[in-house]
Amino acid sequence: MLDRERVYLLAWSGGASYAGAWLSRLGGRFAALALVGGGMPPAEAGCPACLPPAYFLVGEDNPLHEIARRS
Questions:
Q1: How far apart are CA 56 and CA 16, in angstroms?
Q2: For each of the chain's 71 residues, which pLDDT tens digit applies?
């Protein structure tokens, strides 16, 4: 049996950017998110009713750092 309270999303680099872009569609499926080495603002306007806790880790030496900071 799947316990949705314990399903987490960990994404790195381009996967983190993809997850950030589509968080409005993904947010309700996960208990928490960790976006590492990437991230970007949502591609669609609006937010899901309940956003899960999220952890962002991106370094300033990343060439796409400014995109992740806008997330």
A1: 9
A2: 778 778 899 998 889 888 888 877 776 788 888 988 887 777 777 666 667 788 888 777 777 767 767 65
The pTM (predicted TM-score) of the whole model is: 0.70
Consecutive H or E run containing 23? helix 23-26
3-class SS of residue 55: strand
Residue pair 36/12 in contact by the 8 Å Cβ criterion: yes
Alpha-carbon distance values, 65 to 12, 14, 20, 69 (Å): 13, 12, 14, 6
What helix, strand, coil percent values describe the chain, rounded to 5? Answer: 30, 20, 50
Contact predicate 30/9, CB 8 Å: yes
